[in-house]
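Standup notes
- HV: blocked on the assembly model, inputs below
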Amino acid sequence: MTRVFRILGLWKRRRIVGLVAPLSVGVVVLLATCAKPPRMPVVDGAVIEIRRSDGDLRPGEAGYASTLQLYWFGTACHLIRLGDLSVLTDPFVTNDLKLFGMESDPGRVAATLGRIPPPDGVLVNHSHHDHILDAYAAMALSSWREREVPLYGGRSGLNVLAGFDGGSVDPRWHTAAHGERFRIAGGKAGSYAEITPFQTRHSPHLKCGYTFADGLVEKPRTSPPRKLTDFQSGEVFNYLIEMHGPGGARCNVFYLGAPFDLGVSPESLPPVGTRIDVAIILAPSADNIPGYPEKHLARLRARQLVLSHFNTFVREDPDEQLAIAGRDVVKMPKLSRDLQAAFARNPTEYPEFEKLHIPAITRIEGDGRVRNVIRIR
Ligand SMILES: [Zn+2]
């Protein structure tokens, strides 16, 4: 080494110091200008409150009939309950990602969807595997068959599901159409949900606007879908779910499973002025959607917001589910700040805002009690 320094003429100590010192200053200045400094977790005008999550409210318990209960089974699979009336979104509990050999896990379906009362209806946002893989298995549960649970989604999704049954389309599966409102009857007299689908486009996976497997499935499949590309996105719908509970309780939930640039797709959200109590909103891809979340929230003006689809389903540990191969794909700190900014900096545009919920995944214990439930009154 000394020889190298001699050749370079740096063998005297002070010459090395003389060279290294300005270099280090340069590196520090360069890093300071390139690196993004961490930002405060809370924007001016907002506050984050953390508290222990709730368990489920059961029939007969105070507030059961009038409290909206939200279970989150991970990804976009939410159970929305108002008393005995319930709607399930995007059945996916297998929590897996494979290019080939994708299969619904009957044990997981039984341990989650098999342990809740059959919902009054199932809504599918689009037909990628992480929204539909467990739909057939759930619909095949004997209690769901007896209850004749209906499922609604795009034609492509129904065609994908047909593959699980040799090509036949079950009469309980229905196609949704933009703006065509339909009614799901509750188990108890007088309870029902009115659903309005809003057609949209799949939120881009990449910043350049690209979406993987973004095609249609034109005909019923005759073999089970196994490859990731067998699950094309198909037609994509957000849903307005107007819940009318048995005791006259009301709650309007908007399931924003696929936000898109409102400049391109202005009809993907309900008309301005629609009352929305709770909006379930997409977390990943937020950076790839122009105007999201600010413009969408200013339009929806929901009282309460619930973040969705932010676990990456390649890990099992509930505290380790944000990254893929160590990469922070969801960027929750940034999204959290963007959401706070949307309501804190626009109090006149969005005065209805009350709360933002970031849920943990719902667990059903051995005794049947449910934990990690969001309760909204
Ligand atoms: Zn998707």
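- HV (later): unblocked. Residues 126, 128, 202, 233 surround zinc ion (CB under 6 Å). The longest helix spans residues 13-34.
- Next: hand off to the docking folks.
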